[in-house]
Amino acid sequence: MTDKVLNFSLTREEMPVRIGDGDYVLQELDGAERDRYLQDVGGRIRIAKDGNAAGVKNFKGMQAFLVSLALKKQVSGDLENVPVDTIQGWPSKVVSGLFDAARELSGLDKEDGEDEVGND
Q1: Is the pLDDT score of 61 beyond 50?
Q2: 79 pLDDT above the threshold of 50
Q3: What gap in Å lies between CA 44 and CA 57, rounded to an integer?
Q4: Of all residues in the chain, what percent carry a pLDDT higher than 70?
Q5: What is the helix (H) or strand (E) element at residue 83, kind and residue range?
Q6: Which residue ranges form the domains of the chain, and what is each CATH number?
Q7: Residue 17 forms beta bridges with which residues?
Q8: What whole-number distance in Å separates Cα of residue 4 and Cα of residue 28?
């Protein structure tokens, strides 16, 4: 038995974002949002005859979907997700930068089981 205690915060991490003259919040995904994103990515994977992943068959909207799940804007006192169509109209450097930040914020940037325990 170990004396190690896992300690978690239930508060999602947030990062303020300014795009043009608009203020937004990039928020860590919750479990359901993370599952939606991973399900979407899983459906895009091309499988080779040997059963191994052989690449992505469709990139359309992939970055914007994750950004839309994570990016919020204050609307009438509530935080609301920014629609995919809005994000798709932004410059690619903006979308890619937000995508990378959202992946990092939600622990989706880890490879080979390197997920960290805890979020505080």
Answers
A1: yes
A2: yes
A3: 5
A4: 91
A5: none
A6: 23-105 (3.30.2220)
A7: 24
A8: 26
